[in-house]
Amino acid sequence: MGSAKLRNIRNYLLRQARYLDVARWNFHFEDGAAAAVLKALKAYQNDDGGFGRGLEPDSQNPHSSPLTTWSATRILREVGFPDLAWQMIRGILGYLEATPDFRGGKWTAATASNNDHPHAPWWHWSADTDLFQYNPSAELAGFVLRFAEPASVVYGRAESLVRTLMPEVMSPAYALGTHELSNLLMLFEDLTVASRSDLILPGFDSFLHEKVKASILQDPAAYRPDEYVTSPMFFIMSADSPYYAENKAICDFFAGYLEDTVKPEGYWALNWTWGEEPVPENVQRDWHGVQIVNHMLYLQGMKPER
């Protein structure tokens, strides 16, 4: 990427993005400290240990929800779960154990209080819908099994959840969603780190490889800046990824595509709306900061000289 384009991206981020995303940028690209990311992330954590307050920009609910708490765990993962994060992690575990948004053996993707605040239509709560199946429960379960005490209630809950989901998601009849598949990749990683391979069914690794390959839009000609598609970024952020080799061509294409589609102002336009409504300007601005960091991490991960 040319220096002028990179300068525009950085300047836009510094002018417009949330402090959290500036801290993330500094951590990854300018020798910033993980402590600064944690300090910024803490502003979104509630007294119950869960996260809300628009950390997930498409849900402006200030109250804690499993989905927004999952978003926080992704940022913790991004900075390597440093020791400094232990108090925050302990709060998350407490929230996941106590929240009433655990029903039917899963943490719900949406919570009732979402409906009282601006949100994308897919985060609208209804008592009789389960649109996201194991999103974000699969990944939250892996997080719990990685960090919680085995004797805790929440650990047992996560263990039971994984035992149930493994045969279910691997069934040929199961309609696996894109975000749900991303959750499963992180679950697999956490079960491996936690030495809980006993919970991994035979063939699960091959299953993930097959699903990642099938889920990514493999035709470069089908990519459009205004269309929401399953890009490699959902699953692969580096050429070191175990899923990179069999998706190398589209991963390499997508790196060039990102460079070509950044706006002159220094951000990437959103490729989704809130149903019939445009995404509110403040939400767009927050997403621009999130996407800048995510896209630049992808580009960094695909650099041959990294």
Kindly summarize this structure in a few lines:
The chain is mainly α and 306 residues long. It has helices spanning 3-16, 19-29, 34-42, 66-78, 86-98, 137-147, 153-170, 178-193, 204-215, 248-261, 281-302, and strands at residues 102-103, 106-107. It is built from 11 helices and 2 strands.
Question: Overview of this structure, please?
Answer:
With 306 residues, the chain is an all-alpha fold. It has eleven helices and two strands, in the order H-H-H-H-H-E-E-H-H-H-H-H-H. The chain has a domain at 1-32 and 224-306. The radius of gyration is 19 Å and the shape is globular.
Structural class: mainly alpha
Largest sheet: 2 strands, antiparallel
- Helix run count: 11
Q: Shape, please? A: globular
Q: Tell me what portion of residues adopts beta-strand conformation.
A: under 5%
Strands, total number: 2
Show unreliable segments: none
Topology of this structure?
Blueprint lengths: L2 H14 L2 H11 L4 H9 L23 H13 L7 H13 L3 E2 L2 E2 L29 H11 L5 H18 L7 H16 L10 H12 L32 H14 L19 H22 L4
Search tags:
306 residues; mainly alpha; 1% strand
